[in-house]
Give the backbone structure.
Amino acid sequence: MTIKVRPAEQKDKDPLTALMYEYIVDFYQRPKPPIEKVQHIFHLLLEKEEGIQFVSENEGNLLGFATLYFTYSTTKADQITVMNDLYVIEEARGKGVAQKLFKACEHYTKNNGYAHMSWITATDNDRAQRFYEKMGGVRGDWFHYTI
């Protein structure tokens, strides 16, 4: 399997939208958002002003994606990236796809002068936690809240 990772392009709209739905609805079991909202995010990330999306592919078929959003850290007084998504289709897991997507996000963060990259994962996603620790991630001291 030859895995290529690259920034998402316009030609990825339909297959990436399908992957995003698989991630949202099937993997995280969340309600299916309207296609207009999903594709709005896709188009916003193509502009690379508020974030960027990377895709992994093999022979033209998408295997996964990762999303970086650009924001600021007051405590660092600097810009940071937040890896909001890292998803690989079931049949491509364990084949180095996630590592390549993660590294693309990490390299983008470093090569573009961001102070650091942060991310969160579900407390019950043990596989992801092991993966992030293997990649050098350190669990933070902060609690994550939503409202």
